[in-house]
Design brief:
With 277 residues, this protein is mainly α. It has eleven helices and no strands. Helices cover 70% and strands 0% of the residues.
Length: 277
């Protein structure tokens, strides 16, 4: 055994303290995000849902199309059909977003995070940045695969289109953007409510319960209000929400969805800054 001897009065070299920067906080959050088992399983579920349901609906569309006097290729929407799985993948991304924040409150790890980053808000910005980067990358690749798989299935009846068709590239990228912003809304809800059940319930209510409820209203009201709901506004960017009588323009609807997300993120930041964990 050896011992390190120091001369009395000899000052030891000081180890410089690392400053808390936004980049270091983001790296820490990325490490936590990628090491969670729920992250891998939820992302895998979202990929399977989007590609699988898009392929299934494309196959149904192809099997039900029978060329004839009353049939028209214009009745088929190949782009939206191949991307229809986004309506179901958004569930997985939204739940993952809620868990990203509420999970730390449930385990108490949020206290350690806020002790290391006492200014608090950099933690939220880092989580949002990491989540947005990962989800957009995954959903963009998934969206591209869904599009080409759907078009390959529809090509059996020559109903397919190419990526250069009008609106195709915008829809493919728009689906990834829609899923990313919807997932960020889930992160904000998790930070706002700090409870997994509450966050998921509100997310599901806004994206899946409100739209059909509004369809039960008189047409004079539903036709002029439904297009402003978060899910309906966001879906038009990839060709969804075709049931609406007066849908918003694609990028207008996406901008409105971003506005909803920004408001919720603002409330979440306010609560994180003003109240204890």
């Amino acid at each position: 055994m050896t011992a390190v001897l120091t001369k009395p009065g000899l000052a030891q070299p000081r180890v410089p303290a690392l400053k808390v920067t936004q980049a270091r906080v983001a790296l820490s959050e990325f490490t936590k995000f990628r090491t969670l088992r729920s992250t891998k399983w939820t992302l895998a579920t979202a990929v399977v849902l989007m590609i699988g349901i898009g392929a299934l609906l494309s196959a149904v569309q192809a099997s039900q199309y029978h060329p004839g006097p009353g049939a028209s290729p214009g009745d088929v929407h190949p782009i939206a059909t191949s991307l229809q799985g986004a309506m179901f993948a958004v569930v997985a991304f939204g739940v993952l977003g809620v868990l990203l924040m509420s999970g730390e409150y449930a385990t108490g790890m949020i206290r350690a995070s806020l002790t290391a980053v006492p200014r608090r808000l950099p933690v939220l910005w880092a989580k949002l940045t990491v989540f947005a980067g990962v989800i957009f990358a995954v959903s963009l690749v998934t969206s591209v695969v869904s599009f080409y798989v759907g078009q390959a299935i529809l090509s059996s009846h020559h109903l397919n289109v190419s990526i250069t068709a009008p609106g195709a590239l915008r829809s493919v990228i728009g689906a990834a953007l829609y899923l990313t912003v919807a997932g960020l809304t889930g992160v904000a809800l998790g930070a706002l409510f700090r409870n997994t059940a509450a966050g998921i319930s509100v997310f599901a209510g806004v994206f899946f319960v409100l739209p059909p409820l509004f369809m039960l209203l008189p047409a004079s009201i539903a036709d002029h209000v439904s297009q402003y709901l978060p899910s309906n506004a966001g879906e038009v960017v990839w060709g969804g929400a075709r049931q609406l009588s007066y849908p918003l323009a694609p990028w207008t609807g996406f901008a409105l969805l971003c506005g909803y997300a920004a408001v919720i993120i603002g409330f979440a930041a306010w609560r994180l800054h003003r109240t204890d964990a």
